[in-house]
Amino acid sequence: MEEVRLVLRNAGKIDPNSIEEYIAAGGYEALKKSRTMDRGELIKTLEETSRLRGRGGAAFPTGKKWSTAYNSKEEEKYLVCNADEGEPGTYKDRTIMENDPHTVIEGMLIGAYATGAKNCIIYVRGEYEQSIRLLRRAAKQAKEKGLCGDVDVRVVSGAGAYVCGEGTAIVNSLDGVRGEPRLKPPSMAVHGLHQKPTIVNNVETFAAVPVIVEKGAEWYGKIGSEKYPGTKLMCISGDAVNKACIEVPTDITLREVVEKFGGGVAGGKKLKAVQLGGSSCGFMKPEQLDTAIDFDSMRAAGASLGSGAVFVISEDRDMADIVRQIAHFFAHESCGKCTPCREGTMRLAEIADKICCGGAMRTDLELAARLDGYMKKSCFCPLGQSAATAFMSALKLFPEDFEMKLQKEAQ
Amino acid sequence: MDTVKITIDDRELTVPAGTTILRAARDNGLRIPTLCFLEKINPRANCRMCVVEVEGARTFQHACATRVKDGMVVHTNTQAVRDSRKMTLELLLSHHAVDCHHCLRIGSSKCADLDPRFCEMCFFCDCVKDGVCELQALAREYEVDVLPYPQKFTGFPIDESSAIVRDPNKCIKCKHCLDICNDVQAVHNLCASGRGAEVLIGPAFRKSMAQSECVGCGRCVEVCPTGAITFKGYRDELSYYAQDYGTRTAIQISGDVLPRLEKDFKLAPGSLNYGQLVSGFRKIGVDYIYDRADMEVIARTGAADRLDARIGSGTPVIFAWDFGAVTFLKKRFAQYSDRFVFSDSVTSVFCAAADAEAKETGIKKFEVGGSCSGAAEGNATGELECHFDADMVYRTFIRAGVAPARQRPMEADKIPGLTKETRYAELFESAVWSMDGSCTALETKSGEKTYRAVIAHNLGQADKLIRSLDSGAEEPDIIFVCA
Amino acid sequence: MNKKDCAIIKKALRDGGLLDALLALQSEHGFLTEEAIRELAEYIGESPSQLYDTASFYGMLRFEKPCPVEIKVCHGTACHSAGAEKLIKAIEDATGAVMGGVSGDGRYSLSYVECLGQCQNAPSMLINGKLFCPAAPDDIPELLKGGDF
Questions:
Q1: Residues of chain C under the 50 pLDDT cut
Q2: Per-residue pLDDT, B123
Q3: What is the topology classification, in CATH, of domain C69-146?
Q4: Chain A: residue nearest C72 by CA?
Q5: Could you tell me which residues come within 8 angstroms of residue B236 by beta carbon, excluding any fewer than 6 positions away?
Q6: How close does chain B come to A24, measured CA to CA in Å?
Q7: B330 beta partners
């Protein structure tokens, strides 16, 4: 199977600083077309025909989300593009924004038209300075060309908080407070930014909208898997030969991604595991790679597509070492709101450290498992709920990496 | 009113639509434990103690903020839920300076082993909230005997720079203090700083309390569930001085501590009376015991004199006598200082009266209940040794072997020649602090004259009210600010 | 209010949001001074403590004077696999600072930054906010001497 570059159609082919080149490549035609369509119909087509699902990780049907805002009688509505890409191993959104910022803006403007929102905000993580620059320039260009109409497009910077990638935390951050997640219900689509209807979608989701409108929802809906159609950006990293961001139909298998596009493991080594979806997801063994990458197939296989990050792990790697890195990541990024995550992530990092320096006993592994069970049920938001997932997955699939480090049991 | 049918712990209930699971449970006599929930403040759902199983939900739900739906089935006390609560407590206690009279020292969580009757008075357990700490109570209930994690301290120092002592090592991040300081008192001193396990709740810019915006109102102490925020001077000085031959002690007592004291002693509401408080302190050996109400009479006379002199001059008089309110007004509304009328607080009146009656120096003065700015005032003037809230009365009684329910009531010392102050009576009667609600507008008399007054029942109300002055709207003659 | 700060705040809020303003003030003063926070708080009509509460949440914002050379190594799984530990060792040897600390002469600080999203060019690091990736341990001495950050 080949790459199918829809979202990345312009990547490497046009100058991201130039709106003229974007337009010459067919840009903003979709926007013009959408503005001739009935808004309700546009959303219905998106939902039922293209069946586009959010590319941030939760895979919620995009049309359904937009229809909540569309149906609201509120005058003031917001569209927020979640460009707070923080999941380790993920760089697809950066790839989109640095190569083709206009596709994101066009997608948002189409969304604004469909939902009736007059305010588009792109929340970009603070570390992505180049993306912020390019998007701001692109928004200015679009405005100068009169493409925005009465819609305000604004690019706002984050400032170093992974948790702000969570759908309600991003709204709190935009509201000018700590990026802690919010109580739900109400959902953001009902009471979001400034308590108004707010649609939060990932960069990749918005970036896919123009090509869906231009080429037609039916055409898009035929690509990839039935329930999760279209293409997905996959970011290959780790011990792979080719570390690149690729765009492939969603019915491709993970094996093809790793072997064909990733080139397999570098240095002729054997593959030990693949972590698909980022640090909040588990690991897959080589024999599990024949699963299609779409959200539902992965979930059925007990794994997660997540952000589409593909972290390739060679036979030389120590899973306990990888898990320790991940544990410290979550401890550092925990917002601190709820007890299980605030204290639990800290204790998981402590246990991981203990394992790696040879001071752990079997009871420490059991304690980590208890923490995982507890955090899955009692944490306030998905960050805490999934913080120990990778740890548990590694323990289950590669117990030898941990066993050999345990202190000898007392005789 | 719309109602819905729900089931909690196999009991079918009909409750108002939109109510929370916690409210529905409490209204029907069902108990769900909480730590970070504070009545009248919007729930934060931080602590995870109130988690319950809701059929159909993937995760546990927080009862404090989950609204009921018709047909909802809730289980508040399954083994899984109890396990979760116990793990929450284990995590909190592992990141806590556990120096209370708790099982961890002795290795038992049985209440019988920890009953004060068996206490050896070694004072190894020194936490001021021992016996009245909500975290401790829950830890005993859930039998947290052994902590699975290495005990950790925050690394932040204890702040004893002011009358309000902050111990970050006992903070459970419930944010009660923050919410009271910001949303109710509008002082905007306390905030969170940092994130994750290293988060610190305290004054902005990590300043000490003495350097901060704190006005000393003391309401944060009232709402802290653990020993993280307390009043200075708790260390059992009353009992010590009461027994010391060379020292005389004086105390003024307000009956407003009774409800909380009854709760601390696990007595039925209304079972203790004021006289038993008095006799309890006499038993300890306090020399002079005054009724705060009597002191207030004297204070009111002083206040009325000052009000009479300034009122009716055209612009509203802004009156306060609580130290916290006075500090707040001076700090926040210095531009209105020509309208301020301050008079001696009940605390300072008591101190003066105690000094006068004792006719000697070296008298140690304490107060029980009343306005909690007494602590800050006492610290600032050096007159008062300590302000006791109900929890501290409990602690003192426990350690001195006083069971107030068994005390025969006695009377406080009488102040000779005391006549009730009638001027502005309506005003003083209604000027009580309240966490919610709105300002009270009323008429108050001084002699033949009637004045329009507005009482701000907390500093947040005062802030809003004073900011609205000079806007052309009709203004009262007196604004009374309660801290 | 400081005129320059006012202009900085105005521009940042016009083009972006609150965090842009905080980052811009930090850029101007080297770190977020109490005064800068009070100014911004006044500008947006918030109490200083509330703004400080918000600002202190975010990892990119700092409240103390930074070292002249701030080195941050990416803490991500991909960078770790690509040899971040060796990179850190090289930096420690070259500067005298240990991970999480400051060099004896106070010139260098070394800390982690969470995944920068440069996974295909791992390992990555920031020196005074400037991105270097892939960064090789052997390049470190020259890089630091060069001072191009």
A1: none
A2: 57
A3: Glutaredoxin (3.40.30)
A4: A127
A5: B123, B395, B396, B399
A6: 47
A7: none
ipTM: 0.96
Q: What's residue B38's pLDDT?
A: 95
Reading the block at residue C98, the tokens are 């240990």
Mind listing the pLDDT tens digit for each residue in A282-321? 999 999 999 999 999 999 999 999 999 999 999 999 999 9
Tell me if chain B has a CB within 8 Å of the CB of C49. yes
By residue count, chain A amounts to 411
Three-state DSSP state, B96: coil
CA C19 – CA C58 distance, rounded (Å): 9
Q: Taking CB atoms and an 8 Å cut-off, how many pairs form between chains A and C?
A: 136
> Of the candidates B51, B173, B192, which has its C-beta nearest A378's C-beta?
B51
User: What integer pLDDT is reported at residue B360 of this predicted model?
Assistant: 63
Domain(s) labelled CATH 3.40.30.10 in chain C stretch across: 69-146
Q: Is A239 in a helix, a strand, or coil?
A: coil
Task: For residue A314, give the 3-state DSSP assignment.
Answer: strand
Binary contact (C56, B195; C-beta < 8 A): yes
Residues whose CB falls within 8 Å of the CB of residue C101, separated by 6 or more in sequence, listed in order = C109, C110
pLDDT band at A171 (very low <50, low <70, confident <90, very high): very high
- Taking CA atoms, A37 is separated from A27, A110, B336, B427, in Å, by 18, 11, 61, 67
Under 8 Å CB pairs connecting chains B and C tally to 35
Residue-range domains of chain B with CATH? 3-77 (3.10.20.740), 155-232 (3.30.70.20), 248-294+349-406 (3.40.50.1780), 309-345+419-481 (no CATH)
Identify which of C34, C52, C59 has the shortest CB distance to residue B191: C52
Q: Report which of B58, B56, B159, B143 is spatially closest to residue B102, judged by C-alpha positions.
A: B143
> Would you tell me how many other CB atoms lie within 10 Å of the CB of residue A361?
15
User: Residue B308 CB: number of other CB atoms within 10 A?
Assistant: 14
Backbone angles phi and psi of B110, in degrees to 5? -75, 125
The answer to whether B162 contacts chain C (CB < 8 Å) is no
Q: Which residues of chain B have pLDDT under 50?
A: 103-106
Question: Is there a contact between C119 and A88 if contact means CB atoms under 8 Å apart?
Answer: yes
Spatial distance between the Cα atoms of B329 and B337, rounded to a whole number of angstroms: 8
Count of CB atoms within 10 A of residue A129's CB? 15
Residue recorded with tokens 């941990």: A402
pLDDT digits (tens, 9 = 90+) for B69-86: 999 999 999 999 999 999
Q: What type of residue sits at position A273?
A: A
* Residue B103, pLDDT score: 47
Taken in order of first residue, the domains within chain A and their CATH numbers are 19-221 (3.40.50.11540), 231-314 (3.10.20.600), 319-403 (1.20.1440.230)
